[in-house]
Amino acid sequence: MPTAAAPEDDVLVRRALEGDSAAEEALYRRHALPLLNTLIRLTSNRDDALDVVQDAFVQAFRRLPQLTEPAAFRGWLRTIAFRIVYRQSKRRRVLCFFGLAPPEVSRLSTWVRPGTSPEVLAELRTIDEVLTALPAALRVAWVLRYVEEESLQDVADQCGCSLATAKRRIKAAREAMDEALGVES
Amino acid sequence: MKLREHLTDPADARDLDTAWETIQARRHRGPKRGVWVLGAAAVAALVVLVLRPGPSTPRAPLNRSAQAFTPEVVTADDGTQIVLMPGARLVPLESAADVTGWRLEQGAAAFDVPHDPDRTFYVRGGDVRVVVVGTRFTVRRAADQLFVEVDRGTVRVERDGDSTLVHGGDALRVEAKFAENARRWAVAGAPESGAPGGRAYAWEPNSDARRELAFGDAGEAGATAERQGATGRDETNTVSGSAAEGGAIAEALAAARGAPTAVDGDAGASSGRKDPEAGHGGEANGSDANGAGASGGGANRADASGGGVNGGGANRAGASGGGVNGGGASGGGANRADASGGGVNGGGANRAGASGGGVNGGGASGGGANRADASGGGANRAGASGGGANGGRANRADANGGGVNGGGTNGGRANRAGANRAVASGTIESGDGANGAARSGANSNRGGANGAIGNGAAANGAAANGASAKDGATAQRREGSDDDDPLAASDRARAAGLPERATEILARFVADAPDDPRVPLARFMLARVYREDLGDHDAAAKHLEAALAAGLPRPLEERALARLVESYVATNQRKRARAAAKRYVENFPKGARIEQIRRWAPPP
């Protein structure tokens, strides 16, 4: 997040529009790492996540003049990124069907903090199993809400869907999760 | 359970550097070819033609069909009149009380910008930004008088070596002679406070013929000629030119049959030094090197029967022509208006063709040699037509408008305006451009060095050294459309769900430009498309091997090696997978993927 002294996103976006490459890089440095963390959690593949980051920033900088609210750069960037994730996921499933690519596997339990209890680890593994089986749209919505701790509105914005749709996706994912975890709703 | 409390951040910050390099490389457009394409477009965007105001208030991108035959006029919220030439596309960038911005994505557009000192108005064309401040005035001709009414800004009216300033709200009546043949008046507007602005009007007395005016070109081609004019002797012509930041907006009318009077002036951003020199019966005017504000002045020569107003660049009014050169935002250039043309030059070199008045907005993009003939403007040439000593290379521009030289040899004087240059990727601010030097006879006028330096590698005009400015010309590269950037084009194809198309683009690029430094990256991307989109690990491995052999940046080399291992594993080429894994372990023992790769590497 920007510090008090750092220019806000809207300032950087305007500078970038004026051709200031340093502003572009500042936007990248600010938002790339959190985005990469999210994407790795979503894709469970560092290389794929890096590719998405690259694609997202390339697209974002190319389409920067279309950004109507410069201050909303973060959400807009992530919308672009998750759209790429959806597309890649769909493509991968086709390739996987023909045996040309390995299936997507959620690996949240891979990135646990040291000292995590076996119970939590077991729960995370169950969550991974559920996430692996979920469609990308539901998986993204759920991860954004419960792992990234985004607000419902931000989930909707970043998923490029309505608030109602976001809620529905989260609910569907949570129901699958609760069932697997034996949680009574 | 609060999941986040139990999870670490999996990303490695080192990966960000890798990704950033790749992003930069993918966004890199390669050698810029055609700053002048954009330059011309941006410049032409500033050419103002007074047309009836349109009704609309654009908030969305503005488009004008390429199939249309006429311009379309729209009026923006801020009162700016925008003339969209056929094929034009304008995208609003920002609109606020203090700044309004547009991006000219293709074609040409003209702007008539209300003067507002508190507001910045700019137009982007690629990496070139054109900043404009508006001003306006009118000139009307009577039988033997000239009326100058200034609405905004300031103009200077000159005649026979005398001059006077007319400010906004004032009017001036001047006795004028309008004889048959080769007589003309011209008035150039001077901007306020050295800022861009000013206009000049030109009119053609004793003629009922409609005047032909030309818009400076835009886009890939030359200028589009636009006809408009007045009929009758006392009509006021509404020809206007505008210039970019640092330059003057000049409007001129050169009477086809005006008095053999040469008027020199500076319509540029600041002072121009007048060097009245007889040259073939006319006057030669040279702007000081430091004149015209940030722009490099130029040499001006008006010959015996011509009148010229030169606000910056080199100006040559032909035997019967008059030209008004508004100086260039970026070094001015050579201006030549021939017999029947009135040239309005907002910057770079201008040559108005025999039947037309050329309106070139050269300045916006660093000046530039523009040639506007009856039907077009664009890049140009000025020099050789003047005869006499060689002052500069003939200016030329290719079909894409990539001309450079503003210099030329004019008449008996060796006038030379240096090469004007703008680099596509550079932001052209006031005074940017290339080198503009003028050397005129006994007076060596030298335009200031204007250099817009972007990422391009355009050479300096080198006018100061007396060298040909062609270096600048040859260094000009047209701003690549996306199609010129195979990496971007392949990205788009891939994003559009056409991975085969993406591979075609990249493969063709690799085959056609094997020495291009982007080839390794192109191969890396080819491998990615094959691997991820097409599931063709054999092809992916082949391109990864080639990319590695050609030499990738070290961070990419690490990824390429890791992917190579994956591709060999996927195709059950275990021996090769182990060899690749061994290379990875040896070269990147602390690599981010070392744990996965180590499984495939043979034990030490």
Would you kindly provide a written description of the structure presented here, covering whatever features stand out?
Chain A has eight helices and no strands. With 185 residues, chain A is mostly helical. In chain A, helix 1 crosses helix 2 (21-43) and helix 2 (21-43) runs antiparallel to helix 3 (46-62). The mean pLDDT of chain A is 86. Helices cover 21% and strands 21% of the residues of chain B. Chain B has helices spanning 3-6, 13-27, 35-46, 470-475, 486-495, 499-512, 519-533, 537-550, 554-570, 574-587, 594-598, and strands at 33-34, 62-63, 72-75, 81-84, 89-95, 99-106, 109-112, 120-125, 128-132, 136-141, 145-152, 154-159, 162-167, 171-175, 188-190, 212-214, 225-227, 277-279, 282-286, 299-302, 307-310, 314-317, 322-325, 334-337, 342-345, 349-352, 359-360, 369-372. The two termini of chain B are 45 Å apart. The model of chain B is unreliable at 29-58 and 179-483 (pLDDT under 50). Classes of the chains: A mainly alpha (185), B alpha/beta (604). At the A-B interface, helix 2, helix 3, helix 4 and helix 5 of A face helix 1, helix 2, strand 5, helix 5 and helix 7 of B.
